[in-house]
Amino acid sequence: MIRQKYPRLGVGTICGLFGKTRNAFYDHQRRATAQALLEGLVLALMTDIRRDLPRLGTRKLYYLLVPRLGEYASQLGRDALFALLAGHGLLIRRRKRRVVTTQTCPILLRRPNLLDQLVITRAEQVWVSDITYVRLLTGWAYLSLITDLYSHKIVGACLHPDLSVRGTLTALHQTLAARIQPQRPLIHHSDRGLQYAARDYVELLESHGVALSMTQRGDPYENAVAERVNGILKDEFGLGGTLLGFPQADELVQRAVQAYNELRPHSSCDFLTPNQTHQREGLLVRRWKNYYQPAATPTLTQAAREILPAIFPRCKVPSGLPARPVKRRPDYQLHLYSYSRTRHQT
């Protein structure tokens, strides 16, 4: 702007007025140009990724961008990506959740929860299942999903126009037909929905040697992965909106399940996709952070036990001191699946 107003002034003279050198001015121009090129490259790659994963979160987006950026990856941090997307209005907003009540089965048909304190170390050890509602212009459709608890892979999916057991049976037939190791023990875990206690459904599972497990208190943490998969499909793959009709919804479900299994990395699976994780065995590295952890209960030392009675003769020395939860620095740790009110994220 100054050079436009005073065209006869040289760059060195103008820089001297502000206490800067000419080299500093040109360095700043080069950095600004390089930053603009990097931001353009990042936005182009992000658009390509979100073509298949339209509502992928920024942390997972950063994980997918780093290998594509190559030598420029060191110039882009996670916080810088957040700032860049925020500046262009590209951050993903969470949708408002609606609570849907499950039609529970009678007490006599319920099964125990077999997942309490169970450690998951392989695929096809536990399947979790749930039904979620899909809104149509003409009413509702009902999506039955079966997910492998270890790999988070959707192994069975069926969109049905009603809540009858036919939809859940179709998803179960798909899952059993694609089973890789039918000789290994397997647990089918679900909520207490009527469909999962139906005679045809139970008999099909038992005929394949699959043990049945159900939640006990109606707590979503008892079926956390299944609930989370429902949310991912609705938040990130367009199933949370109002769809035109059943054929269009069914086509969208098939595309969403394929993209979810093949493309979407999971922080609970060391940022691998479900298809990649399904081929593995052993404990997985968890990449999401649990900020609050129960603290160990501090106990009185032997010296304190000897000193306190002398100072306070009438004081009864307690065996230990009560503990309060403390905020600890989060760290990456091995992911042991436990259903004792453990929060699962993907």
Task: Walk me through the structure.
- With 346 residues, this protein is of the alpha/beta class.
- The protein folds into three domains: 2-87, no CATH class; 107-277, Nucleotidyltransferase, domain 5, CATH 3.30.420; 291-329, no CATH class.
- The chain has eleven helices and nine strands.
- It has helices at residues 2-5, 11-17, 22-52, 58-69, 78-87, 165-177, 199-207, 224-236, 246-263, 274-277, 302-311; strands at residues 126-136, 139-148, 154-160, 186-190, 210-214, 284-286, 292-293, 326-327, 333-335.
- The strands form three sheets. Strands 3-2-1-4-5 form a five-stranded mixed β-sheet, with helices on both faces. The protein has a two-stranded antiparallel ribbon with strand order 6-9.
- 27% of the residues are buried.
- Mean pLDDT is 80; it is low at 291-298 and 321-344.
Topology of helices and strands:
Layout: H1 2-5, H2 11-17, H3 22-52, H4 58-69, H5 78-87, E1 126-136, E2 139-148, E3 154-160, H6 165-177, E4 186-190, H7 199-207, E5 210-214, H8 224-236, H9 246-263, H10 274-277, E6 284-286, E7 292-293, H11 302-311, E8 326-327, E9 333-335
Parallel strand pairs: 1-4, 4-5
Antiparallel strand pairs: 1-2, 2-3, 6-9, 7-8
